[in-house]
Amino acid sequence: MEIRGLNSKEELTDVFGLYEKVFKKTPLSYFKNRLLNDPYFAPQDVRVAIEDGQIVSTITVYRRKMYWRGKAVTFGGIGNVATLPEYGGRGLSTAVMNNAIAYMKQNGFLLSILYTGIHRFYERVGFITPQAWRARLTITEIASGQFKIREFEQSDLNAVQELYLRFNKKSNGPLIREPEYWRANLLFAEENERFLVAEKDKVQAYIRVVPENAKGEVWEFAYDDENAFLELLSFV
Length: 236
Ligand SMILES: CC(C)(COP(=O)(O)OP(=O)(O)OC[C@H]1O[C@@H](n2cnc3c(N)ncnc32)[C@H](O)[C@@H]1OP(=O)(O)O)[C@@H](O)C(=O)NCCC(=O)NCCS
Fold this sequence. Notes:
Elements: E1 2-5, H1 12-22, H2 28-37, E2 46-51, E3 54-68, E4 71-83, H3 92-106, E5 111-113, H4 119-123, E6 148-151, H5 157-168, H6 179-187, E7 194-200, E8 202-209, E9 218-223, H7 226-235
Parallel strand pairs: 4-5
Antiparallel strand pairs: 1-2, 2-3, 3-4, 6-7, 7-8, 8-9
């Protein structure tokens, strides 16, 4: 068995073939959208195991930076973890993950993050499951009508970027979003996402939600004026 990074973008074709066989419920366009539009993509970031002359297991390391104690910290977002069913249970994904971890260390990634439903699998290779918090917000009073609520437009992008920066840069963990990342991020947004802004003279708040999402999750938000955010919440 050989474990390595992709040598060229062309090799992604084989990786996409593997996704089609493993992720039956997720359309291939989901993965293509993210990988082909990723402004930081490097072929080597897609780690693969090769056996019998084919790619049998793979993991993607998405190169990202986050704000951490006022600094920019490079980290790897782990995604697209997959092994062909007929090669499963033989330690392949564990081996590719260990290879990805070594690769991240060599390349100066300070930490790595992933979201999963199978925590034990990742804990075995050193990931830690942090405490998850859920917040329930009850809005009792809304000073409605103060703000104009409308759909996000491309011409809002600068204002939204600046708002994101003001809102997030002092926290630990938010992604650092350069203009090219923002453009890419909008390309791989969910089709039915609602991206709303609240405006009074300028954009005071925004929210991104997928209304049909089973968990009713809010993808993200940022605000200068808390009342603008509350008005947005009352809309979604
Ligand atoms: C998860 C997956 C990548 C594991 O690949 P693999 O090459 O079989 O993994 P390994 O052989 O290195 O490790 C096997 C371990 O995976 C874990 N595992 C696999 N599927 C699991 C599942 N659905 N739920 C919980 N654990 C699972 C088990 O803990 C198993 O451990 P065991 O050997 O003690 O039973 C593979 O099953 C797969 O492609 N699944 C579908 C896609 C997916 O769910 N990806 C992960 C999204 S976070």
